[in-house]
Amino acid sequence: MVLVLNGVIQDERPINTHALFLEHPVYRETATQLLSIPTKTVGAPGLLYVCQREMAAVAPHDRNVNIIGSDDATTCIIVVVRHSGSGAIALAHLDGSGTDEAVSAMVARVQELAFGYPEGRIELQLIGGFSDPQGYAEDLFSNIMQSFHKHPLEIDLTQSCVGELNTMVRDDINWPIIYGVGVNIKTGEIFPANFPDKGPDLPLRMARHFTGSHQVLDIYDAAVGMLRIGPFNYDPLRGVDLWLAQSDEFILKHLSTSPDVEPPHFAMQVRATLRYIQDNQFPAVTVFRNNNPHYFRRDETTGCWTPVRY
């Protein structure tokens, strides 16, 4: 049990965010510093975008990626694992599904990318998960802390901008302050960010968590420098036609964990995803023919991901 808080190895994980901030005020200070950075709008060139229930890992010398990031996190938490010696980074957008496996995979991928750098610690940063009325984010924080605490390696929590620290009140409603973050892979700098372009195959990628797939998918092959989606299958979703016939307000109310504070494009993205599921009920057959992933290579002219044709 080797979770390290403020430089001290812990026998027990923090029971909740309030206890963490009460016992370790340094996390209030680091969160305040992060919140003071203006939010950057990051374009597609050089971006490796990570969706909900996805993760990716990248090394600083990777010439295909400048920024790794994720946004649209309300009750979700964005998790960043970094090796301080090599600068290798893994980032995940977690919602409570597949947490144990994702934590193990993130640490393993960072260790692989840090091979040959004997000096350095595994650092952990958590961002997102505001104080929502149902306590979803608080449960998720506990879930993530438990997963890291039982990992055999020492994990040094350096940032925890979650819960009350990532919450503001507007019209008597709790809102997230930060919805997303980017990480500069060369410097390790982390900053509040939003991403208008979320990369290729977005409806396909989002379909996984609408249809009950619990795995956190690793979407980047650092060995060849390519974005990799799938292969995967999902169960057909009943009543898609009925969902698509409903108003945006109905979709927001019934398909969001935090309908009052979702970004404005939420309903539009959900509709695009539902239409994709309607058209591709069995992706193992219609999307991933011959069980091949979708690969995307960085175009050297535009800096954006383009499909690799076989």
TrEMBL record:
One Pfam family matching this protein: N_Asn_amidohyd
Tree of life domain: Eukaryota
GO biological process, one term: ubiquitin-dependent protein catabolic process
Any one of the GO CC terms: nucleus
Segments forming a coiled coil: none
InterPro entries assigned to the protein according to its UniProt record, in alphabetical order: NTAN1
GO molecular function annotation: protein-N-terminal asparagine amidohydrolase activity
Record protein name field: Protein N-terminal asparagine amidohydrolase
Organism: Anopheles epiroticus
